[in-house]
Amino acid sequence: MPTIARHFARLFMLLSLFSYHSVKADTSDTDPNSPPSNSTPQSTQSTQSTQSTQSTQSTQSTSSFSPHKPHSTNSLKRHHTIKRKTDFQFSLDLGWDSQYVSQGQNNLRKGGIYWSTATLTQNAFNYYVALGRGDQLNYIEWNLGIEYDFTILDHLDAGIAYQRDEYRGDEPGFDNEWLAHFTYSQYPWLMPSITYDYSTQASGYFLELSLHSDWAINQQLHLTPYVTQGYDVHYVTRQTKGINHVELGLIAQYTLKNGFALSGLFAHSIGEKNIKAGINNGEIANGKNHTYAGLHLNWLINF
After folding, report:
1. Nearest to 171 by CA among 21, 28, 33, 19
2. Is residue 286 within 8 Å of residue 248, measured between CB atoms?
């Protein structure tokens, strides 16, 4: 089992080799022209880390994990930013996830995925591009998106986003996604949130209801346990819909110097009615329960 240091070394080497050429991909979707079931990051790697960091210092990094189905991972879930002191920011996130899990399913047959994400924030707008590549399979994913954040009421924040997904493999695919989120953050120890993700390729949507509990251990370290309940309407599976999965996880974020932050995630996803039905009818091939972890390094610059 490679060490974390080895994974990061491979990550930096791989970044220079990414390109748009066709490579072999492995996904669980039975439709070769449709995007992998994760096509939401980077998010998500996902909702989990972004929403959990909203109560941390404004100089900390943006969300590092989605699931993206990414997506996410790279979706709104992954890129949703925290409240900030300045009107203009740039962030770069480099990370590795032991599995590409989103919407209760593992999107790759084996191995994990490297992510690199660049985000430019100007006032309430976030512009981002994310690149993912399998660490054992020849799979490449690009996400390009724009997000608008706004406040509805005191402590009630929301955002809407559009994201374009491109997949490279034996059968190149794409998706267009429309996303929205709502987060109530008056009490950092109990922050409910709702995330909505609509896929034009699937003609379906996915809902996630989450509770995050943010705890400041000290000025640098925050621990955030969370629970997420997913509900699918022909987004993950074409033939069935309903309660999809529940995920339990813990996020740790440690603020370093000069705008750097290190984030870690450990999570366990439990497939429910819709995941089980997808396995039975052959739409989902990689099991119903998944345990995974991730490590991301984020660099944030304020202008």
Report:
1. 33
2. no
Dump pLDDT digits (tens) for 188-214.
Answer: 999 999 999 999 999 999 999 999 999
**Residue positions counted in the chain:** 303
Continuous H helices in the chain: 4-15, 47-52, 76-79, 273-280
**Cβ neighbour number for residue 20 with a 10 Å cutoff:** 10
Sign of CA dihedral 241, 291, 145, 285: negative
Report residue 277: phi and psi, to 5°: -65, -40
Measured CA to CA, the distance from residue 169 to residue 155 in angstroms comes to 43
Q: Please check whether residue 211 is in contact with residue 229, taking contact to mean a CB–CB distance below 8 angstroms.
A: no
Residues pairing with 298 in the sheet? 93, 261
Q: What is the pLDDT of residues 109-137, one digit of tens each?
A: 899 999 999 999 999 999 999 999 999 99
The CA distances from residue 158 to 5, 90, 154, in Å, are 37, 21, 11
Q: Cβ-count burial of 204 within 10 angstroms (0-12 exposed, 13-18 middle, 19+ buried)?
A: middle
